[in-house]
Amino acid sequence: MYRFAEKHPVLFEMPVIIAGFLTAAVITVFGTSAGLNADLCACIGRYAAALFLYILYRRAFRGPKPQDHPAYAVPALFFALWNIFYNVCNGIPLADLNSFPEAVILAGAPAVFEEVIFRGIFLYNLKKKGHGDISAVLISAAVFAAVHLTNIVGNEALAVLIQAGYSFVIGMVFAAVYLKNGRISQVILAHFLTDLINHIFASSPASASTLHLIIFGILLASEAVYALWLAGRKE
Asked: How buried is 157 (Cβ within 10 angstroms: 0-12 exposed, 13-18 middle, 19+ buried)?
């Protein structure tokens, strides 16, 4: 399995992603049949799948000694700041404080699950295949964005394409930070905070103003340039 994964990282990533989502789906089915909340069951499934994959593929997380460059991770937090800015500018109130524990669980599940799969395991196999840092960053981000295209079912195509582009840039930044710092906890935290902001506001605005779209475009372009710069930086 390990040899195949290192020779064919993209092909290997597909069944890993599918297996992870199937695990979450199975736990959700059993949990809801027992009367548990469906969203909570899905989260438990993702946490369980991430833990299993982390243990199974622990070699991916035993690389060289992590670098002590926490400042590299700071731009990864700008996505969370954007979510705050966007919701506040649109007058979206904070959700009930009683829902905060649920928001933490809902935001933590995809953060842990996706970072273990896409940044931990996938980047490890891409590097073993012989890809340079920039190539690994772009490939991992492309696959990450492609997975989000599955949201096309039941949603507007333009909104899904914007989400995929957003996911591509986020994937670039998280991948570059992880490659340079070697700390999966940093990208999990950045991912968690980005999702948490959306959960702690009561709702999300249906559309964005022209000004917001321009600012959002500048943010994405800046983050993409930063990711490429960081990936290509020689220590």
From this structure: exposed
The token duo for 26 is: 């199975």
Distance from C-alpha of 27 to C-alpha of 107, rounded to nearest angstrom = 18
Q: Domain count for the chain, please give it.
A: 1
How many other C-beta atoms lie within 10 A of the C-beta of residue 5? 21
- Residue ranges making up the domain that contains 103: 2-232
> 51 and 27 in contact (C-beta within 8 Å)?
no
Sign of the CA dihedral 138, 139, 141, 145?
positive
Measured CA to CA, the distance from residue 27 to residue 11 in angstroms comes to 25
176: tokens are 């570059």
pLDDT tens digit string along 26-37?
Answer: 998 889 888 888
pTM above 0.70, yes or no: yes
Model confidence over 44-66: pLDDT tens digits?
Answer: 999 999 999 999 998 888 766 66
pLDDT at res. 63: 64
What value does the mean pLDDT take over residues 191-199?
94
Of 229, 206, 210, give the one whose Cα is nearest residue 218. Answer: 210
Torsion, CA 53, CA 153, CA 219, CA 134, rounded to 10 = 40
**pLDDT at residue 231 greater than cutoff 90:** yes
**What secondary structure letter does DSSP report for 130?**
T
CA distance 225 to 214: 17
Token digits for 136? Answer: 């690994």
CA–CA dist 78, 60 (Å, integer): 27
Phi and psi, residue 70, nearest 5°:
-60, -25
**Nearest 5°: phi and psi at 201?**
-90, 150
